[in-house]
Amino acid sequence: MADPRRPGVTAIHSLDRFVFSVPDLGVAKQYFTDFGLDVRAVGNRLDLYTFGHPHRWGSIFESGKPKKLEYLALGVYAEDYEPLRKHLEKTGVKLIDPHPLVDEQGFWLRDPDGITLQVVVAEKSSPNQKGETFGPMNMKNPAGTEIGFNRRSMQPVKPVRLTHALLFCSDVPRSLKFYREAMGMNLSDQSGDGIAFMHGVHSSDHHLLAFAKSDGPGLHHTSWVVRGIDEVGLGMEQMLNKGHKYGWGLGRHVLGSNYFYYQRDPWGSFTEYSYDIDFVGLDGWPAQDHPPEDSFYLWGPAVPEDFITNHETQAHKA
C-alpha cells in the first residue's frame, strides 16, 4: 500500500533522525541500552534503533563537551526533494555546507534559532494510520480467571519507534512560521507563545516536532512509542531499577493525549515512554490555542522544577 500524500503539497513527511553530541559515548551507550533501544557502535558514533525495525532513529557522537543538538534530518518523498529546495531558495532561505560530522546526501539549512537541518529523500517513518492500541496486560490463572501479570513474567520494555522530538527555541511563533512556510508542516495545538505542536501534512502522529520557549535552541526530549500503558509504567520501573532515579510520570497529556513517563538522561534532557498518541490523517487537525493548565498534563505528579530548563544553553554559556 502506497504511503499517503496530501495532493498538491510539497512538505517533509517525517522526522527522519536526530543527532546530538555528548561528552562520553560510553555513558550514552549504557543509558540508551537501559532505556530499551538497540544501540549500535558505528565508527566514531552510536546509532539508535528500535529492536525489529530497520530505521535508524538517532545518532550520537562524542565531543568531550556538554551535550549539544547537532542537527535534525527531515525526510521527504523523492518527488518533493528538488521542489522543496527550489522553494526554500526562492523564499530567501540560505542553504549551507553539510554538517562537519557527516558526509551524506541531502541539502542543509538552519532554522531561525540556528538549529541545523538536513533534508533527505527517505522512506516515510511517521505513521500512516492510528497505531494499534492495547488495554491493560492480563493473563489467566490455572482456574481460567483473567488476572494481572506477575513480575516474573515481564520482559524488558523495548520501544517500537520514535514518535517526536521537542525542541527549545527563543520565539515559538517565529519557529511555527518557519516550519510551516519552509517545511510545509502544520500546527496541531499550542498554548499561547509558550509551547506548540506541529504535524506532518502527509499524515503523522499529533506532533513530529514541538517547540517550547527558552533562551535559545536545544533538545528537550525525544519520545518513543511503547505497546501499552503498562509498558509506560514498566519502562519507569525498568529505569528506576537500573539506577536512573530522576523522572516525571506516570501521567497523561492533554495535547496529544498520550500516556507518558519521562526519564531524565545524563545530560539534563529527557527520553519519554509514550503510548496512544493522537493521529493526524490527510484531513488535518482542528488546531486550537489552549489555556496554560492544559499545556502539560491531564493527570500525573507535579512537574519537576527544572523540567523545562534548557541545560544546553546553560552549559554552552558557562
Automatic annotation (TrEMBL):
Gene3D superfamilies: 2,3-Dihydroxybiphenyl 1,2-Dioxygenase, domain 1. It comes from Ferrovibrio terrae. Residues 14-122, 161-276 form the VOC domain. Pfam families: Glyoxalase. SUPFAM superfamilies: Glyoxalase/Bleomycin resistance protein/Dihydroxybiphenyl dioxygenase. This is Metapyrocatechase.
